[in-house]
Design a protein that fits this description.
about 140 residues, alpha/beta, about 30% strand
Length: about 140
């Protein structure tokens, strides 16, 4: 099955699963507006260790293990035009401090910009990095110090 055929099948399966369901209050898609969907898809494919399930020059879609879908949408094609009302972070929970430190070492080796070094905070041990568009990526171990 080609990537486009697989993407179409995956999107059709997701649409069928939603058909007939009552409106749910849990978001199941995250859309990030990006300068280049192709560049961002390459970044996230390497970061997540998986290829997008759907890809075009202006959009890429990743099926995350949690069931949430991560979409990367070229900002120039967003209608209505997007504004930047506030910030958000994509957060990755890991089991402990050692896992935070290991992920930090891996991302640093990959050249991903780290904007907060590993540190203890009130919610746990954490660090923060940025994707090519400046979206924050936070890795944390809840409760770890």
């Amino acid at each position: 099955m080609t990537q486009n055929t697989a993407a179409t099948a995956h999107t059709a399966d997701a649409t069928a699963a939603l058909a007939g369901q009552a409106l749910k209050s849990d978001p199941n898609f995250l859309l990030l507006y990006v300068r280049s969907a192709v560049e961002s898809a390459g970044f996230y494919a390497a970061l997540l260790g998986k290829a997008p399930v759907e890809s075009s020059p202006t959009f890429a879609l990743f099926a995350l293990d949690s069931g949430v879908m991560l979409g990367l949408w070229g900002a120039g094609g967003v209608v209505p035009a997007a504004t930047a009302p506030g910030g958000m972070e994509l957060a990755f929970a890991v089991p402990d401090k050692a896992a935070v430190e290991a992920r930090h070492a891996d991302w640093t080796a990959r050249g991903i910009p780290v904007i907060q070094p590993p540190t203890a905070m009130d919610f746990g041990f954490t660090f923060a990095a940025q994707d090519p568009d400046g979206h924050r990526l936070r890795v944390f171990a809840p409760g770890a110090q």
